[in-house]
Design brief:
Strand content of chain A: under 5%
Bound molecules: adenosine-5'-diphosphate, magnesium ion
Radius of gyration of chain A: 23 Å
CATH topology of chain A: MetI-like fold
CATH topology of the largest domain in chain B: Rossmann fold
CATH class of chain A: Mainly Alpha
Radius of gyration of chain B: 24 Å
Structural class of chain B: alpha+beta
Order of helices and strands of chain B: EEEHEEEHHHEHEHEEHHEEEEEEEEE
Largest interface: A-B, 15 and 26 residues
Number of domains of chain B: 2
Helix content of chain B: 10-25%
Oligomer: heterodimer
CATH superfamily of the largest domain in chain B: P-loop containing nucleotide triphosphate hydrolases
Number of strands of chain B: 19
Chain lengths: 279, 342
């Protein structure tokens, strides 16, 4: 980094590459956004043109807001995502603390077992999960989704968090024990604040797949009152006709909350991703 | 009254015996130093006393109470770690007051104790800073302050100076000595540095491989070491060990002579060829090899000899010197490293 700073050419090349990448990455989002404000005809005739006085139209947004219960879908998605993240972080951190802090029989085995979960996609078990949800009566409830996403997120969360927790100095925890803090307080007041960047990293990595998932909502909770946003938007995509205005508007609105959560986590995230490299 | 007593304490990690049959008494108000080479079990012993590890067997008594099953915070001890172990997300005041808050002390008491500790340690200007904004020396003072505010019966220090640079180390050493005089509380101090042990201790406990080698005041250990290990570990530069062969006929296998007990003597029994001269101004240290009739018996390590001369001397490299010593200053050791009293 210091050598790049000294040579202006390198700095230029580096920033050039980064800006180029940013443009490429943001381009589809940009296209979705501008087209969601255009009439159907203009979307097809000039997909890259900005909306102007003639082509500007909010018909997509009107359709979305009128048709179906868009706010309910929105709320469902938000509840599922936030609740799953909270559970993943809570249980992930607790398991990681136990694995990294205590010597007990089967510690290593337990860690390996959890690491295995990272490699096996949860969708392989869909049939069994559906079976389970039917017999527990959880089908068509948000709980079905929350539980599945929690299970899906836990292995990676435990893996990342236990790695970070191992780096928290043992002397620090011992000092806290001498100061009279209970194991729970040490976990909550000392260790958790110190692995905050890792928590944010785990949160962001889990958030986007959960928010965007279509598979489990379709299978486990297709009922009208528990539909998520992604599933709800599918009504506009028909086999023969697709209401592109509505699809693009729904997508644009779906970006917002993820963006918001990302902004909240991002400062911590960057620290989490780079802390290993810089230290 | 005894502040601490360890009775046949053993500690194993799995099959590895780290501490073997430790018996130590620490009197009220005494400054005790555990000293020994790295890995000999000093930290483990301190952690047993603190309650951070459980003893495999044996009794630990603090202030007359058996504490084997008492949690660390209830043992009336406070510990200062080598790595400072300050809470990074709390400022200096928060670091010092956490334990008191945890005990449920009133705001007034907390405030007063923090103020007193910060005055003793010159920390008034830093109370609102975070650990990352402090220098190493300041951090260590905060760590000591955090121990003081708890008003423990027993202070435990684990190599508190080894992360500091040389000048700061000396200052902080003095500060700890002053602290002991001011508080008059029993302290246990762990170090691998014999200078720290000699300068600070009322009582030194020398450890090796998980065993207590000798216990005594610094001068007792210096003047009357129980064995070759203690003799070689305490005192700097370290004691010279020479094959006894030509120097004594009392059955000893080695003779130990401290560098400061050797003197230039034209009729002395030792001949040394000078390899290296360290001129310190007040002292001159010579490092040389035995030559003459004894060179044969003293190959390699055994042939190296250090001489500490008072004042300044004109000595050139390669020069041969005759050295002598007073017979009562020599220590005799058998082939097992045990001391022979003669
Ligand atoms: N938690 C542990 N598990 C296994 N062995 C340990 C543990 N802690 C210390 N030891 C071993 O005990 C010995 C003494 O360690 P320690 O007390 O830290 O030595 P010192 O502080 O004197 O340098 C070392 O050989 C170390 O490997
Ligand atoms: Mg140690």
């Amino acid at each position: 980094m210091s050598s790049a700073r000294k040579r202006p050419f390198n700095t230029l090349a580096m920033h050039g590459a980064l800006i180029l990448y940013t443009l490429i990455a943001l381009f589809p989002v940009f296209v979705i956004l501008i087209n969601s404000f255009k009439t159907r005809k203009k979307i097809f005739r000039e997909p890259l043109a900005l909306p102007d006085a003639e082509s500007f139209s909010l018909v997509g947004y009107q359709t979305v807001l009128k048709q179906g219960d868009f706010f309910l879908y929105f709320q469902n998605s938000l509840i599922v995502t936030v609740a799953s993240l909270a559970l993943v972080l809570l249980f992930g951190a607790m398991a990681a603390f136990a694995l990294s802090e205590y010597r007990f029989r089967g510690n290593l085995l337990m860690g390996l077992y959890l690491a295995l979960g990272i490699m096996i996609p949860i969708r392989i078990g869909t049939v069994a999960i559906l079976d389970l949800m039917v017999s527990t009566g959880l089908v068509n409830t948000l709980w079905a989704l929350i539980l599945v996403y929690t299970a899906q997120g836990l292995p990676l969360a435990v893996f990342i968090l236990s790695e970070f927790m191992r780096q928290v100095s043992n002397d620090l925890k011992d000092a806290a024990r001498i100061d009279g803090l209970s194991e729970y307080t040490i976990f909550g007041r000392i260790v958790l604040p110190l692995v905050r960047p890792a928590l944010a990293t785990v949160a962001v990595f889990n958030m986007i797949p959960i928010w965007n998932d279509l598979w489990f909502p379709l299978i486990l909770a297709p009922a009208e009152e528990v539909k998520t946003l992604t599933l709800g938007s599918q009504v506009f995509i028909g086999q023969f006709v697709t209401d592109w205005n509505a699809v693009l508007s729904a997508l644009s609105m779906a970006i917002l909350p993820v963006l918001l959560l990302y902004v909240i986590f991002s400062r911590q995230l960057i620290r989490g991703l780079t802390s290993g490299a810089v230290k | 009254m005894t502040a601490l007593s360890l009775n046949s304490v053993n500690k194993s990690f799995g099959p590895v015996e780290v501490l073997k049959d430790i018996n130590i008494e620490v009197e009220e108000g005494e400054f005790t130093v555990f000293v020994g080479p790295s890995g000999c079990g000093k930290s483990t012993l301190l952690r047993l006393i603190a309650g951070l590890e459980d003893a495999s067997s044996g009794e630990i008594t603090i202030g007359g109470d058996l504490v084997n099953h008492v949690p660390p915070s209830k043992r009336g001890i406070a510990m200062v770690f080598q790595s400072y172990a300050l809470y990074p997300h709390l400022n200096v005041r928060g670091n010092m007051s956490l334990a008191l808050k945890q005990e449920g002390q009133s705001k007034a008491v907390i405030e007063e104790r923090v103020a007193e500790a910060s005055r003793m340690l010159d920390l008034d200007a830093y109370l609102d800073r975070f650990p990352s904004e402090l220098s190493g020396g300041q951090r260590q003072r905060v760590a000591i302050g955090r121990a003081i505010v708890r008003q423990p019966k027993l202070f435990l220090f684990d190599e508190p100076l080894s992360n500091l640079d040389a000048a700061l180390r000396m200052n902080t050493r003095l500060e700890i000595a002053n602290l002991h005089q001011a508080l008059k509380t029993s302290m246990i101090y762990v170090t691998h540095d014999q200078t720290e042990a000699m300068t600070l201790a009322d009582k030194i406990v020398v450890l090796r491989d998980g065993r207590v080698e000798q216990v005594g005041s610094p001068m007792e250990l210096y003047n009357n070491p129980a064995n070759r290990f203690v003799a070689g570990f305490l005192g700097a530069p370290a004691m010279n060990f020479l094959p006894a062969g030509l120097l004594a006929d009392n059955g000893a296998s080695e003779i130990g002579i401290r560098p400061e007990d050797l003197r230039l003597d034209a009729d002395g029994p030792l001949t040394v060829q000078v390899k290296h001269v360290e001129r310190l101004g007040g002292d001159t240290n010579l490092i040389g090899r035995l030559s003459g009739p004894m060179a044969e018996a003293a190959q390699g390590e055994a042939g190296q000899i250090t001489v500490r001369l008072f004042g300044q001397h004109e000595i050139t490299l390669g020069q041969e010197l005759r050295l002598g010593y007073a017979a009562e200053k020599a220590f005799y050791f058998d082939s097992e490293g045990g001391r022979l009293k003669v």
